[in-house]
Specification:
Length: about 325
Amino acid sequence: MKNFAYTRPRSLGDATEAAGNDGAQIIAGGTTMVDLMKIGVLAPETLVDITGLGDLEGHAVGTDALQFGALARMSKVADDPAVIEAFPALSEALWKAASPQLRNAATLGGNILQRTRCPYFRDTAYAQCNKRDPGSGCAALDGGKTSHHAILGGSEACVAMYPGDFAQTLVAFDAQVMTRGPGGTRTIPFAELHLLPGDTPHVETVLEPGEIVTAITLPRIPAMANSHYLKARDRESYAFAAASAAVGVEMDGDTVRDVRIGLGGVAATPWRARAAEDALRGGPLNEETAREAGRIAFEEAVPLEGSAYKMPLGADVVAGALLTVKSRIGGE
């Protein structure tokens, strides 16, 4: 690990100023940053520790919205009875991520900005990685193993998969991200926070240098209460998703009034399955329509040889999540 300077600002203004310097990186829980520094993927000159900024901690479940400070810990939010009642999928997504030790340390703001787990990005022995070294090529696309890569949103430059769980609930339910940077504050729709790889996979978000995520908010809607996060993975705990779905449903009798579907484990960014949602709204929710929605969710998938299994698996996960919610609501 390369030597680095360390600073712990006392105010948000000082933090944004320090984070805007060349070679600076923000650290909070450190569960991703320290890993990447150890393996030589990142070598910041300065770490800006924002854990002393108490205003960024805490969370609240209100009648109109849910709000989470960027420094709120994953485990604390997941275990909050108010969160569990208002938005079960969010709690489930957090509990199914990482390990107890990591959930106790990791922050929500850091979680949504975690880097890919693509083995060619995280192993510097592979010279070809456009995300780590722009213009070097993509080892996955050049004959590498692709079983854990994206089938939605990839490009000719990169097929790395976004690895998180929590983000799928945010993209499906219209979350917004509040930030503070050298230019002031702004609110970013979560669906616009992450960038598709295109020709510049090393540019992963719309955040500017020195810009810090301060909070995450979600409008409280009926579909949140009838929600579920389903995750298919190689083992039951401490494994990233091969395919996952965060879904929520609002019924009007036997008719779907509103439905939300976020996909994980299959895309280059947190992914909203809008076409599948449109197919369900205004009709019944049963096994036939749930499976058709799962199929539609992956109509535009572009799998490689090693990742083709994600299409039927992902469709089954979407259908399974929807049917689980329907069983909780009751009815035919």
